[in-house]
Specification:
alpha/beta, Heat Shock Protein 90, 7-stranded mixed beta sheet, 26 strands, about 20% strand, binds adenosine-5'-diphosphate
Length: about 625
Amino acid sequence: MPRQGLGWKYPLLILGSVLAGIVFGWSRIGSQINFWSYDFLLRLRPAVSSSSAILLAIDEDSLESFGGLLHLREPLARALEVVARQEPAAVAIDIVLSEPGEESDNEALERALAATPNVVLAAHLRTGSSGESGAWQEPLPLFRERAAALGHVHADPDDDGVCRRILLAKAGGGKRLWAMALEAYRLAQGGGPVVETEAGLEIRPRRIPAALREQRPLPIAFPGPESSIERVSLQEILETPGSAARVRGRVVFVGVVVPGGPDHFLMTPFSFGRPLSGVEINAAAYETLARGDFLQTAADSVSLLVALVFAAGLAICFVQFAGRRALWLAGALLAGAHLGPAALFLAGHILDFALVGGVAWMCFFTGGGFHYLALRGRMQTAEEQRSRYQRAVHYVTHEMRTPLTTIQGSSEMMSRYELTDEKRQQIAGLIHRESVRLAKLVDMFLSVEKLSAGELALRCEAVRPDEILAVCIERALPLAERKQISIGHGPGAAEPLWGDREFLEYACYNLITNAIKYSPPHTTITVRAWHDRESVLLSVEDRGYGMDAAELKSIFRKFYRTPRAENSQEKGTGLGLAIVEEIVVQHGGSIEVESRVDEGSRFTLSLPRAAGQGGPVATVRGDEHRQSH
Ligand code: ADP
């Protein structure tokens, strides 16, 4: 059942939670959570065993046998000649050949490069001392001329130092270069052009979803810890040329795999403390392209939209459902906010986990907290109502005892003793009066419930408001005189109204007796009746104790009495105004109160005018007129 009374605070709190969730999602902690989630989910993907790239690794043994990096070009040239004979699809050399070197070594390498098909050479963007990008460090022209392409070899790590992606297009020093992995893939596919669009690149027939923003990032689908890319060492190729047969038709990545060497080693989601060499990262990026295993990062607006959908779901959940059901459903939604993005990741789409999760958690806590507080508030109200009810029952039973005792005593007297006719009549009158009082007390209790349930029918007719007021004043006069309060009829006259005389008399009498009860002695009460275009208005104004704003909000609740009324000598049930309101609402009218503490109160009833209403007497069921006051 929908819950009422959440007011404007709830949507405002949910909005606040959404904003807090967004701030969290886009904070440093949020981005770290995104990294962790990314790494965790990447590891859940099935491992890939076959690779179309092969690593020609210049390992520690190879370097030692050639006398270190300075003497690398000559053995590299020899190895390339062996590799070239096996007709690889492409050879990507992840060593920046920019140093002058020995002439004979350079000549040998130049010859080898010329004999090798589809060579990609490495270029590196220098960074200045303050981190800005400087000029490109490129291979010597004699090598560059022999290569089919030039590719950058940067593996841009994230803020936490872990490499998860490469930039397919790296710009700097007034020049932009494709990544070595992309060039190797392009050449292996026949050397066609790279077609660029805003959303991605195309090397026929493959579409690569690497958007223009942020220099076309490509998340690397690392093949997993067990299935790192197949490798053959340089030394092995030279010592046993037969081993080069493994490179046939494949893309060969040549690079130094010695920690501390010229190549950068970086952590990857699979590293677990063991960094990976740059050439292996480039080879893994190539594999990603070759397999078409693309992870697409959703735009921020998409993640935000998903987060808002979950926020709305959670907000509605706590409004529409109650108790445990709300908690279970909200819990399921919260789980969905984590499992949904995880499932999408495994299907190749990366959402902002921290944003979606952060917004969902915030809304869960806020909605849950509000839900709990509202529940507690309702329980408190119910408890207060119960204790007020008990007090009222106490009062009514106490009040009932007096007439009952009188009736009991009088009837006993009549039956036991010989009485004169006069005495008998006197006692009969007393019994009658007390039983009427008793019946009224019971009626009062029953009529509130019956009225609100629409079970009492109003017998409406044209009634003169001044007549109603006059009857009520006359009845209330003895009470007023006891406190020396005068009741005056203010100026103004009114057209007849359309209503049930008896009920309206009850309502006005109640307002006047309240004015007497809650005013100090020697004050005045003024009653008025007047009309405007649509309504007849009746007001009762006193110079009594008055009420503050908080009390005013509650006086129409059943059994409510202000603390001042409770502590006063005046007896009451807290039911009178609830009945008055009910009567007025059933008439299609309204009631208004203005009050100031220690200055007084004015209750104004607004009721429909008789002019234009049906016949002389019409019967209306209570529920046919319901309106709020
Ligand atoms: P009660 O039986 O207590 O008079 P009512 O429903 O008639 O019950 O009124 C509810 C409460 O509203 C009263 O207990 C009193 O605290 C407050 N109240 C009603 N009328 C007045 C008034 N004219 N001046 C000050 N307080 C009033």
